[in-house]
Specification:
GO terms for molecular function: oxidoreductase activity. Helix content is 46%, strand content 15%. By secondary structure, the chain is α/β, with parallel strands linked by helices. The chain has a seven-stranded parallel β-sheet with strand order 3-2-1-4-5-6-7, with helices on both faces.
Length: 235
């Protein structure tokens, strides 16, 4: 069975994608900081009958990254690495004139530096895989200028660039930066923390964008940046 490592997998998009992959027969290594939420997610995903290993920890911790990939190796080696763990850098989001610099450093460390560290450590397994793949979960704010989204958007723009260069440097892999769409305004805790007073309008569930991610895995287009809504429009 193919093996996926997914960070930020205790809820939201990470859990939704993990469940969809498990339904397709993937074995999974799930990472997140909150032990109880991660264990609940692992039980939910594991109900599909595949092997699911929960590894609690902070992705900025090198020992945690090593543990994630050691678990993947025990399952047969990672085929798909999904960098989904993210922090905002300010909650709620603020204009750049009020952006805490410490918060921006934290966002860069989590959203960019840790993602690269995980890829670096995973490369031997990914290169050995039949169809080694990296997905960096991006944001519309990485490509467009939206008030208050500057700090978070800058971190995701940096992640996009790392993904683009990795795709060039590792032609044997598929490396995709994937934008969930519409300022990531899915019904997730991350969006609620970013914009707590958005008017209470109903928001799409993370499950609604997962088919876009699955289409990439099915069709395996060239490495690059993709938007899940655009992929869904042509399904």
């Amino acid at each position: 069975m193919p093996v996926a490592v997914i960070t930020g997998a205790s809820k939201g998009l990470g859990r939704a994608l993990a469940a969809a992959l498990a339904e397709r027969g993937w074995d999974l290594v799930l990472g997140a900081r909150t032990v109880d939420a991660l264990e609940r997610s692992a039980r939910y995903v594991g109900a599909h009958g595949t092997r699911v290993v929960a590894v609690a920890g902070d992705v900025t911790d090198g020992a945690h990254r090593t543990a994630l990939l050691a678990a993947a190796q025990e399952l047969g080696g990672v085929d798909l690495l999904v960098s989904n763990a993210s922090v905002l850098g300010a909650e709620p989001l603020v204009r750049l004139d009020a952006q805490p610099l410490a918060g921006l450093r934290t966002a860069l460390e989590t959203n960019v530096v840790a993602a690269l560290g995980l890829v670096q450590e995973a490369l031997p397994q990914l290169r050995a895989a039949e169809a080694g793949t990296v997905i960096a979960v991006s944001s519309e704010a990485a490509a467009e200028a939206y008030e208050t989204w500057g700090g978070y958007g800058a971190s995701k723009a940096a992640l996009d660039q790392l993904a683009a260069v990795l795709g060039v440097e590792e032609p044997g892999l598929r490396v995709w930066a994937v934008e969930p769409g519409d300022l990531d305004s899915m019904d997730t805790d991350l969006y609620a923390a970013a914009v707590p007073d958005d008017g209470g309008e109903p928001r799409p569930s993370p499950d609604s964008v997962v088919p876009g991610f699955l289409r990439l895995l099915d069709e395996r287009p060239m490495s690059g940046r993709y938007a899940a809504p655009a992929l869904l429009e042509t399904v």
